[in-house]
Amino acid sequence: MQEPSRRSSAETIEFREVTKRYPGSTEAAVDGLSLEVPAGEICVLVGPSGCGKTTAMRMVNRMIDVTSGDILLGGRSVRDRKPEELRREIGYVIQQIGLFPHRTIADNITTVPSLLGWSKSRSSDRADELLELVGLPREMRDRYPSQLSGGQRQRVGVARALAVDPPVMLMDEPFGAIDPINRERLQNEFLRLQAELRKTIVFVTHDIDEAIKMGDRIAVLQVGGKLAQFAPPAELLMSPASPFVEDFVGADRALKRLALQRVRDIDLWTVATCRAGEPTADVRERTAEADLDIALLIDGDRRPLGWLSERGLTGERVRTELRSPAEPIVELDDILRDALSDLLASESMYGPVIDADGEVVGVLSMEVISHAVGSAPAEVPGATELAAQEHANGAFDVEGTDEE
Amino acid sequence: MIAAAVIAQSGGFVRNRGGDASCVANDGFCPSWIADNLDRYWAPLLEHLYLVVVSVGIGFAIALSLGLLAHRQRWLIAPLTGVTSALYTIPSIAMFFLLQPLLGRGNTPAIVGLAIYTQVIIFRNVINGLANVPEEMVDAAAGMGMTANQRLFRIEVPLAVPEILAGLRIATATTVGLAAFAAFAGAGGLGQKLIVASLITFKSNVVIAGGMVTLLAAALDLLVLGAQRLLTPWRRAVAA
Questions:
Q1: pLDDT of residue A388
Q2: Do the domain assignments include residue A195?
């Protein structure tokens, strides 16, 4: 009985020439879709309404059957499986969440375990474990869905989908019914969870920003169920395959790319740092070699104090004469888009970058950022990578026990 | 003709047992007569209760089964609604006489007739209750691997309970009233005290028998309501 943290290995999902035609319709809903989602990655299906993204997702667990072609989970065709058995092995989260109002939270979470005939105690333990995983207090287990906020219900929906630790999850606009502020938070929480769980996920949304944020790979579908492009987010933004994709990702795609990178991911400018009392000749020499032609005054712990003025270098020794404060100070873990926003807000062309200890490691400038936007997409990590970095950096904090 | 026979049968009901003689002679409302004769009404009351419980019980079982069947086989909804509605329009006295050639006289035709009248109300509420279960819940249930039967009995029926039991309440109240006419089929119950020509004008009798019918309806209604609350604790859960 004691196998609560059994991690089933994620499986690849492969669409092979999948076509769906509904009876009485001449147009295909999904037309010859071929793509492969590597194990442990989030594949976002995105596109305008009527592009067949939900249909494509629902064919994975046979809520809809393919007309032709095949879908393979871990190399095994879904067509050979009994639909009910297949579905119990696939996590399922829908937009309206669909919690059962007549069942307690614990009973909702253990829906699939009860279908599989788990013992009461094993189910109960699993419910507690999952509540903790999604950041809900254990006292919630005996409440009914109507007693929870929208965000809490959404978390229960995710917990329910994870109940038997399925290798594959299907998520149909899972954050669609949540207000924008909570949506952002739930998205971040989910990415952190995914960084830990590494499920293979098919995620449907109509929102390109959500697709870019959540996806390791994005499949852009156009009306008629045709695949317009299948690529990691950065590549999609960098080199849209067609005018349709270019239009769909939006005119601000360069800015969107910035949301995918952290300051630590790009080459920063070097800067000459100096302390008060140092020989000015040394500082002038170092400044000449650095990317930036002014020196940064730092304290004994290498924390930035401000930009040294010309007058500070007039004597033998460096004097504390600042031309401007060292603002904004950017951190290595900042998202590039946020760092750019800081630069714009402080009307500064550049700012010192500090590491986790507060020590100066370089300078971020507008030029550096614009260079990063033009860099090769291979250097840009996906959503799970970003979340995993954050996770590794100890930024995993469980929020959401609050009422919304 | 048969009605006359019924009345003749029950005509032996004695007015002259106790009470204020002049009040009774005037068909008045006589508390002293009521006090002396109340015991004569307990047996008809229990018979009445029996008729209602048995006929509603059978009627509920049939209508629920038909409703579940029609929920799956949707083409059945229209014909079943039509048939049950048509049966409901048959006047009750006619129904009780019509059943006698087939079923004889007594409780059997009464119970069959009363059960028939419950069909339309319960059937419609079952169908509507199941149809009103939000689609996303059925979708979520299917998506998690519930079979059609599991969806029906674990999700759809429990969520339709409030509407199904609302139908049961109306059916029960209606049946308590209709059961008074079951005396025309030769069944017992409080109807025996109400349909007899020589007694219907006697205010004391009408007050007791009529009052008992009303109280019985109210009591059974509360009983079903209590069952509904017991079966749907989730509906009383309030946001914490």
A1: 64
A2: yes
A143 and A288 co-located in one domain: no
* Residue from B108, B97, B120, B122 nearest B181 by CA: B97
Is B179:B50 a contact under the CB 8 Å cutoff? no
Question: Rounded to an integer, what distance in angstroms lies between the CA atom of residue B59 and that of residue A110?
Answer: 36
In chain A, the number of structural domains is: 2
User: Which residues on A lie below 8 Å from B136 (Cβ)?
Assistant: 94-98
* Chain B interface residues (partner A, CB cutoff 8 A): 134, 136-137, 139-147, 150, 155, 158-159, 232, 234, 237-240
Number of Cβ pairs closer than 8 Å across A and B?
72
Best CA proximity match to B13, nearest among B37, B31, B32, B42: B37
Domain ranges for chain B: 44-232
Q: A198-224 pLDDT, tens per residue?
A: 999 999 999 998 999 899 999 999 998
Residues A316 and A217 in one domain: no
pLDDT higher than threshold 90 for residue A257: no
**Domain CATH number, residue A345:** 3.10.580.10
Q: Which chain A residues touch B142 with a CB distance below 8 Å? A: 63, 87
- Mean pLDDT (whole number) for B7-34: 65
Domain boundary among A213, A233, A260: A260
CB < 8 Å to B159, chain A: 100-102
Contact flag B240-A143 (C-beta cutoff 8 Å): yes
Please answer yes or no on whether B143 and A87 come within 8 Å at the CB atom.
Answer: yes
Q: Which residues of A touch B232 (CB under 8 A)?
A: 102
**Cα(A45)–Cα(A221) distance, rounded to whole angstroms?**
7
In this complex, do A87 and B139 lie within 8 Å of one another by their Cβ atoms? Answer: no
Q: At which of A201, A230, A260 does a domain end? A: A260
| In-domain check, residue A364 | yes
Domain that holds residue A343: 264-377
The predicted-structure confidence for A152-164, as pLDDT tens digits, reads as follows: 999 999 999 999 9
Range A213-243 burial, b when 16+ CB lie within 10 A, else e: bbbbbbbbbbeebbbbbbbbbbbbbbebeee
Please give the CATH number for the structural domain made up of B44-232. Answer: 1.10.3720.10
